[in-house]
Every structure is written in structure tokens, then in C-alpha cells.
């Protein structure tokens, strides 16, 4: 077996395959061994198809930048032909009839996919603790959250099972678990990667699919391979000058960076250790020749969370309705309480409510755009705290009882609208939304944003910092991240402890 497997990133492993120094089968042997040893402790992978991957390794994988590299996909938006997709739900178990467009493009790079990773139900909360598959543990500390909704992918990468894995981000779901698991995670600009063919966009454009990686250059090389409009795409955005991989390998010009320190969700306390890492990162960027200046986007934080919840609840209702129409009522019998209630809320909203929320999104986009006229990018924490224990972020039993009572009460009057007006939604969503106080900005605006693994807490848990770029300027983000990585600022991975 190839014992040095975890010492290489994806591009380096592919180079070894290309040079004939190691075979795709040997790499898969190493990945399967890692998965067999580690996954029972982590619960990062929920579906395996090793035999299919071995057949692919033996019959020949596509010739691309990642030929032979073992790979995993998040079990949510990535449809992989002839394999099940559960979306983290006890109610869904569908065999995908075809590859989604981004999976086609990922396959063309030569990756060898052998499994799918854990995710919360429909990716709706930012901890991976679904009732369908159980909790994914943080690779640095058992019993702690790996984040979400791409928590299974982040844990698999951080623990050394694979050098990269597919992830999706609708409210921070690539960046959030990257911060808590000590990996690199970039959410591309709105429209950079395809969402089809079944969707034109997710959550009004908030969702972007990409990868979670250990190295900056793997993320850049994969974005080179997957980006670009597809048939029916609602957005067609300009390609970069040169390639993203080239950008990741070169030093950036001197940048003016806004230091964003105030959460955009009210009553959110930023942990002292996180603030210390933020200050340290700002100083490190200044030592590299960049200018870092305190500056905040002029956003109405009382409206900010409300507009996001309205959009997500409306789309949750659509998702549940769509599954029921296409696959039957049996597929939605066992929804988790928070999922059912988000759908209930979505059904209680009007088209005017959704239009108001999208108008609020535009205000946030405009104000952030004004800030980025004066600054090249924004530096802030990815998450206000290091990882928390399991059981902290999912709804408590009492909250679930309240949610189930809402189902009964809704038969008598519009409980959904009352829940918004009474403040119940704000109370129930506060624990989760508070943790998303810095990541949501990238999704609402559609701006590219990344989490870089640059700090550790006293308990030995990773702390990530976020950089948000100008629209369509992933290249500058990759350049800064590559510069930080080469300077040795990235923390060690879980398997290097």
C-alpha cells in the first residue's frame, strides 16, 4: 500500500500517477484503508461504492489534472448516476438517474469517487448531526461538531481520507466546516459553477457548489475545471485572466483590506480566542505588505437575518413540495421537526414577502459593493466561536416539542405568520444564525469568500478566518491564500497531530 498517501495533495498525487510512480488502484487502496480505519470513529462517509471505484481505476479514468485521485461527494446536491442520494434525510432515498453538470465536470478531471459524505437534512443547519445518519465528529475532538452542512466532507479531508471532497455553500456550508475542521474552503462567486440541470440556482442564488481541500492549489485547479455557464444558466460571468491555479501560485499585489469585526446577527458574541486570531491574521497580512483598515458594511442587521430566513423557508417549502410531487408522500413522512417547520413557515409566506426579502438582499449587496469600492477584500472571522459539542446547535427536545405543537396549531390559524411576528422564529433560530453572522454575507451578496485555517483554540480546535472578495475575483483570493499557505501560516491537519 502507498503509505505516503496523506503527504500529498490532489495535484501531487495525480502527478505521481502520471509519472507511473503509483497507480490509481494503489491510491484507492490507501484511501479505502484510511476510510476503514477512520470513518467508524468520525461518521464522515454515509455511502460507499468501493467496487465501482476499483472498476474505474482498472478500466481507466479520464485523463485530467486529478487522474486517479480518490474523491468523495457531499450527499446533497451532487447527483452521481446510479447511486443513492438521501440529502441527510430519513424521508429521502432516491437513485440518481444521471450526473449533475458539476459532477460531470469533476469526473472529467479524473477523480475517482468512492463514496458520499454526511450532511444535515437538506443542508439546513450548520452542524452535521442528522437523525438519518447520526453525527459526524470533529477530527480534532470526538464529540464536537464538524460544522455543516458540508461537515462530512470537511471531516474526511481533515482526517486524511481524501485530499479534497465536494461541498456546497448556501449560508457558509463550505467555509463553516472548513473553519471548524482546519481545511481550506472557498465559496465561488454566484454563477461561477453550474447548479443544473435540475436547478438554475439554489436559494435565490445563495448556494454555490465547489470543494473542500487541504491545499489552496487543489481548490483553484478544480475551479478551473468546473467553472463556466451551462445550458439554461441564469448567470454567465467573466472567466479569469489566466487560470485560478496560476493565481494561487503567484504573490498578490499590495491590497487594501477592510477589517470586519462586528457580526451581522444581533446579540452575537465573538469568542476572545477568535478575535485574537483575527488580530494576528491582520498583522500577518500587514507584514506581507498589505494594508488592513477597520471598516464595516452599512447593513441593517435586524432585517438581514429576517430576509435570509424568508428566502430559505420559501425554498424549503418548495423542496418538500417538489419531492412529494415527484416521488410521493412516503418520501416526506419522517422529516425532522425543524425541516417540517421551515416548510410550514415557507408556505405561510406570500410572494410579496419573498419579493421584500430579495429587495433586502439587494440593499446588502449594494452596501457591500460600496465598501468594496474602497477595499480589495474583507477580512473577518469565519465563525464567531471554535467548534461546539454535539447537541448544542440542533433544536433541543423542548424546541422540537414547540415545533410539533406549531404543526397542530397551524391547522387552526396561520401559525407560520404568527411565528414571525411574535419573535418565535428569531428565538428558535438564534443559536444557528448567530454562528452564521459572518458567513451569510457571502451568500446574500453572491461574492466569493474563503475560509483559511490559521488558528487553534486552547482546546486544540481549529479557528478559520474568512476573506471575502469582489464579485468574480476569486483570483485575488487564491493569490492571498496561496501566499499565506507558502508563508507557513496554515495550521496542521488532524492527521498530522
Amino acid at each position: 500500500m502507498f503509505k505516503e498517501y496523506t503527504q500529498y495533495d490532489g495535484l501531487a498525487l495525480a502527478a505521481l500517477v502520471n509519472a507511473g510512480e503509483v497507480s490509481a488502484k494503489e491510491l484507492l487502496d490507501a484511501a479505502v484503508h484510511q476510510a476503514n480505519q477512520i470513518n467508524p470513529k468520525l461518521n464522515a462517509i454515509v455511502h460507499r461504492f468501493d467496487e465501482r471505484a476499483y472498476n474505474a481505476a482498472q478500466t481507466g479514468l479520464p485523463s485530467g489534472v486529478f487522474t486517479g485521485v480518490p474523491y468523495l461527494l457531499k450527499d446533497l446536491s451532487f447527483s452521481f448516476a446510479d447511486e443513492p442520494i438521501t440529502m441527510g434525510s430519513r424521508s429521502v432515498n432516491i437513485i440518481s438517474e444521471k450526473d449533475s453538470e458539476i459532477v460531470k465536470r469533476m469526473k472529467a478531471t479524473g477523480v475517482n469517487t468512492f463514496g458520499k459524505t454526511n450532511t444535515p437534512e437538506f443542508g439546513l443547519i450548520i452542524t452535521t448531526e442528522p437523525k438519518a445518519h447520526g453525527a459526524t465528529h470533529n477530527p480534532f475532538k470526538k464529540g464536537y461538531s464538524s460544522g455543516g452542512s458540508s461537515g462530512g466532507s470537511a471531516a474526511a479531508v481533515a482526517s486524511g481520507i481524501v485530499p479534497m471532497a465536494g461541498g456546497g455553500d448556501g449560508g457558509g456550508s463550505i467555509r463553516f466546516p472548513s473553519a471548524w475542521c482546519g481545511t481550506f474552503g472557498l465559496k465561488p462567486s454566484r454563477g461561477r459553477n453550474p447548479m443544473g440541470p435540475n436547478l438554475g440556482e439554489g436559494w435565490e442564488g445563495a448556494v454555490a457548489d465547489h470543494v473542500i481541500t487541504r491545499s489552496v492549489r487543489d481548490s483553484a485547479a478544480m475551479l478551473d475545471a468546473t467553472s463556466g455557464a451551462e445550458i439554461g444558466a441564469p448567470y454567465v460571468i467573466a472567466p479569469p485572466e489566466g487560470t485560478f491555479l496560476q493565481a494561487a501560485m503567484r504573490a498578490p499585489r499590495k491590497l487594501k483590506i477592510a477589517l470586519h469585526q462586528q457580526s451581522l446577527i444581533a446579540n452575537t458574541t465573538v469568542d476572545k480566542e477568535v478575535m485574537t486570531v483575527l488580530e494576528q491574521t491582520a498583522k500577518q497580512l500587514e507584514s506581507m505588505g498589505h494594508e488592513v483598515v477597520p471598516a464595516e458594511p452599512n447593513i441593517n442587521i435586524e432585517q438581514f437575518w429576517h430576509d435570509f430566513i424568508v428566502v430559505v423557508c420559501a425554498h424549503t417549502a418548495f423542496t418538500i413540495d417538489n419531492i412529494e410531487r415527484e416521488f410521493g408522500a412516503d418520501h416526506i413522512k419522517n422529516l425532522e421537526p425543524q425541516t417540517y417547520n421551515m416548510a410550514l413557515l415557507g408556505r405561510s409566506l406570500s410572494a410579496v414577502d419573498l419579493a421584500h426579502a430579495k429587495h433586502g438582499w439587494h440593499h446588502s449587496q449594494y452596501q457591500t459593493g460600496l465598501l468594496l469600492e474602497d477595499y480589495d477584500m474583507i477580512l473577518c472571522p469565519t465563525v464567531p466561536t471554535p467548534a461546539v459539542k454535539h447537541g448544542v446547535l440542533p433544536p433541543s427536545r423542548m424546541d422540537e416539542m414547540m415545533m410539533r405543537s406549531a404543526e397542530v396549531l397551524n391547522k387552526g390559524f396561520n401559525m407560520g405568520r404568527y411565528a414571525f411576528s411574535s419573535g418565535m422564529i428569531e428565538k428558535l433560530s438564534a443559536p444557528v444564525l448567530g454562528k452564521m453572522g459572518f458567513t451569510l454575507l457571502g451568500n446574500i451578496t453572491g461574492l466569493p469568500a474563503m475560509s483559511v485555517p490559521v488558528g487553534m483554540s486552547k482546546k486544540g480546535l481549529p479557528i478559520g478566518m474568512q476573506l471575502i472578495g469582489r464579485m468574480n475575483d476569486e483570483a485575488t483570493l487564491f493569490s492571498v491564500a496561496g501566499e499565506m499557505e507558502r508563508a507557513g501560516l496554515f495550521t496542521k491537519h488532524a492527521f498530522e497531530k
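Residues 301-327 form the longest helix (27 residues). The two ends are 22 Å apart (CA to CA).
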